Amino acid sequence: MVDVRGGDLSRLRQLNSLTAIRELRRAGPLTLSALAERTGLSRPSMKEVTAELMELGWVEEVPPSPGTMGRPARRYRFRADSGYLVGVDIGGHNIRAALSDLDGEILAETRQPVLPDASLEERLSAIERAVSGCLALSRTSVSDLWTIAVGTIGVIDVEGRVIYSAAVPAWRDLDLAGKLREMFPCQVLIENDSRLAAMAESRRGAAKGVRDLVFLHVGRRMGAGLVIDGKVHRGFGAAAGEISMLPESRWFDAPEHLNTCPSVPEDTAPEDAAGWTLAAARAGDPVALAAVERYVDDLAVGTAAMVLILDPQMVVLGGGFSRSSDVLLGPLRERLRRTCMRMPEVLPSTLGDECVVVGAIEYAVDHLDDQLFTPDRGPLPVTR
Amino acid sequence: MVDVRGGDLSRLRQLNSLTAIRELRRAGPLTLSALAERTGLSRPSMKEVTAELMELGWVEEVPPSPGTMGRPARRYRFRADSGYLVGVDIGGHNIRAALSDLDGEILAETRQPVLPDASLEERLSAIERAVSGCLALSRTSVSDLWTIAVGTIGVIDVEGRVIYSAAVPAWRDLDLAGKLREMFPCQVLIENDSRLAAMAESRRGAAKGVRDLVFLHVGRRMGAGLVIDGKVHRGFGAAAGEISMLPESRWFDAPEHLNTCPSVPEDTAPEDAAGWTLAAARAGDPVALAAVERYVDDLAVGTAAMVLILDPQMVVLGGGFSRSSDVLLGPLRERLRRTCMRMPEVLPSTLGDECVVVGAIEYAVDHLDDQLFTPDRGPLPVTR
DNA sequence: CTACTAATGAAGCGCTCCTTCGTAAGTCGA
DNA sequence: TCGACTTACGAAGGAGCGCTTCATTAGTAG
Fold it and tell me: Are B192 and B156 in contact (CB under 8 A)?
């Protein structure tokens, strides 16, 4: 049941304007006739719509493309640069930020290292530095920001308050959205990092176009993000994907197999042990290979649970360990094939470390789209 | 992003007509002014819309309600009796059927016992008898049937072919939809029974209005149905909810604890053993109680997996064993509370044995709605 | 320089919805 | 029984939006 109420004539115009914007965003600069054909309107009507949209500042004219037969057609494009979005990935060791235009085209990226045990203030000021860096790189000012979307570990409630975070103690019970709203004069969105990563892969990464996706966020901590019917699944209390809490899933302690592999040199820093084991496995070290096997044994149990419950089209392996997906994917596929009723595609992430930032940008774009395309609001005028 | 393309003026009228139909279906007979207020249209326009809908046979006038101030208003209602829907539950031991009008109001129900090892022909003819029974009870003819929706165990592909069915051997690889289309001259829909039951509970049962639901279909076989974001989740290969295939979920063998309880009398039929154990547990038999505990221990593992992965608002316990939910719910809640990050509501089914049939009817109604409310189709004229 | 092509812009038409008005059909109170 | 009141009905006039049509304009090709 499509949730559209009919009504006024102006509603029709509004619908048509939105369709025009959508087409322009999707297909770049278009001529009037092309736009008319795509939207199903006649050219004269389309003309009126574009005139109105130009008036409001959503659309602008670009030079016609020369070298065509006949009179050159005017071309119009969506003014993606009338506002900017920022995506932030708050990780344990790094804070990444990216700035994009309203189309989600990334214009600048920065990274700020932080210590895992950094205080709340240090962490927040690192966020501020990361975002300011993006603004400086892209020569935009904070007043041009429309939305800032943040991905972080832990369970975040609907209002953007951190409910639970095992990894970052300072985060616990923090009103993160509130803090960020004090820092930036724009809309603030908070979401779990694994979910954003899942979204990113389903939009721009390995799972482009896939409507049902399980994203494995594997690294020193284990997480999962679900895309169901093309949308990120949050769950009723925003706690979806927390399968590692279940002992039988064998996810919680799975990374220990890699950390405690006997062939890791003694002087290796604890946070590098897993990486060392994976590298050794790739080089053929039998002890490391055995550790990886044990790790994948465990990883496969929780993964199979998700696959059997959801029957997704695809499973994407992402997160820190996905750099070693060549070592992990084979055994994982083999184990899943044994248990799963219908074997999904199992692919490595193509966005790597960028996945959370990219997902945050996508999340912000989605939010904008929601605002634009929900019934009962006229398009907003744009400041010039 | 709402999936609506603007366009023609007639599209607007169509939208308004559909909104009117929807309101009439939801709120029963309505006066013109009430309808106008609900749809947002003015009364004169509403008048024209209803006139058109009456012309097409979708709507009819009912006598005005007397005893009001002022001139009595004409009232209109959706002609739910211009067509009929049938829902069928193909179980191991019983085939149930129900007939409803286009609103999903159930008008007749029948049940046909079948033996678990009945042949394909016997089973199909039992279906025919069940449906004919409904038609006779409600004095309708098969030509008035618009849709027949069937719920059955096993995995059914998109075209209505049974891919896998552990319980009913004759079902394997059967083109069930094809067979039924030969039997009935109307649309045929096939869906997994647990999913239909989940749908039923989320529409008319314990989970009314709940958008994220895990339905436990527990009985001699274990199944699960998921409602996510208000919609039944099928999965990419229609195999969602098959958690019992995973050994670690401990679902597959869970019923054995009830079947092999030592205090079950030796002369009990195998299919009644579990029921006996549950009854004994309710009466306080300590051996039976211990068996139930072991059963719930196992049931809780797979359930916790689903809850942690999906974070649903509610878990509903349904299926054959749900008659004993007073014995099962307490221990189940206790175990879930221990493992789950956010404890969902856990309630017993309110539809009991009817759940699959009711779900099938709901499924047929939904299908009708989809056809009605998807863009680009004019309302069909109704035979009078 | 002319023929051809393709987009433009203005004019006229039809449909759908809105507002406004006088009229009709009931109930309530004397 | 009759008048006042309440509420809905139905017709008329008007505005907004989109469609079709056609003369005009700005390019390319020969």
Answer: yes
Question: Distance between CA B15 and CA B33 in Å, rounded?
Answer: 18
Contact A12 B16 (CB under 8 A): no
Residue after which a domain boundary falls, among A78, A102, A133: A78
A127 with A230, same domain: the answer is no
Instruction: Output A55 or B288, whichever has higher pLDDT.
Output: B288
Host domain of residue B364 = 83-197+356-372
For residues A260 and A346, membership in a common domain is answered with: yes
Residue A1 lies in a domain: no
Q: Which residues pair with B223 in a beta bridge?
A: B217
pLDDT score recorded for residue B42: 85
Do A48 and A94 fall within a single domain? no
Predicted TM-score (pTM) of this structure: 0.89
Quick: pLDDT tens for A117-135.
Answer: 888 899 999 999 999 999 9
pLDDT surpassing 70 at residue A377: no
Residues A187 and A245 in one domain: no
Q: What span, in angstroms and rounded, lies between the C-alpha atoms of A179 and A8?
A: 42
The nt closest to A36 (CA vs C1′) is: D18
Confirm whether any atom of chain C, the nucleic acid strand, is less than 7 Å from CB of B41: yes
How many domains are there within chain A? 3
At a CB cut-off of 8 Å and minimum separation 6, what does A75 contact? A29, A30, A31, A61, A62, A63, A64, A65
Tens of pLDDT, residue by residue over B81-108, are: 889 999 999 988 899 999 999 999 999 9
Question: In chain B, which residues from 8 to 37 place their CB closer than 7 Å to nucleic acid strand D?
Answer: 8-9, 31-33
